Predict the structure of SAM-dependent methyltransferase.
Amino acid sequence: MTEHHEIKPGQSVELLKELHILTRDGKLNQDSRRKLKQVYHLYQFIEPLLKEVQVEHPEVTLVDHGAGKSYLGFILYDLFFKDRPGSGHIYGIETRDELVKKSQELAQRLSFPGMSFLNLSVAESTNSDLLPETIDVVTALHACNTATDDAIAFALKKKAKFMVLVPCCQAEVATVLRKNKAKSLKNPLAEIWRHPIHTREFGSQITNVLRCLQLEAHGYQVTVTELVGWEHSMKNELIIAQYKNLPRRKPTERLAAVLAELGLEEMQERFFTV
Ligand SMILES: C[S@@+](CC[C@H](N)C(=O)[O-])C[C@H]1O[C@@H](n2cnc3c(N)ncnc32)[C@H](O)[C@@H]1O
């Protein structure tokens, strides 16, 4: 039996088969049902942002960092852009060449001209001539380690109106917390990250806090929610940022104060504010 009631109207069954979300005979298995549910859940957040961009100009540019197999990009394109010629372009950025090639072939096979896939790291893409000077929407879905931070730096440089981030574990902050632990122990709050497992978990959590402050320090309004429907994933924090040119002074000071309090001053460059 096909289970098309779980598939959004307008979604190409052929695409879902190509992405191996549906089997050749149109079935969803446990894993692919979860993947589809996740991407649809995110789509609910992203679709209104695309529409909001289109109020300003008809052609939306979206960059998806750490695209992997580009489930998100393809499903977005299929649902939003495919039947509206000239409505936008999606760029997938991915370091694994074989995934980039597969996505390029699939976009060609499906006749999705508004999709490009670039074999670049997020950091490299920031200065690549292959991408436009400005980008409307930046997404990064479980982009590994500091790739989310690079995606934020990319979006800031490209003056993105929106960012949709679901961070993965970030090890860099935990490493610095660990390195400076002895010095920090006079602060009773250092108990929060004294034990190694706490160092890792707190490092990961405070990273997202610092990211949010960084975004606010650049004039963005930030919303953080749990990505429900993502219950099988440990990493389910969804950060949505919208550029509103908000006052920057307070979050900038706050970010510097948090870095100082935690012995993370050397991370100032990572969480740059100007
Ligand atoms: C966990 S997967 C997530 C894939 C996809 N976003 C998803 O949610 O299905 C992370 C992907 O990011 C890619 N990646 C990791 N670091 C990267 C970097 N610095 N620049 C570009 N891609 C990167 C990996 O090769 C991998 O395909």
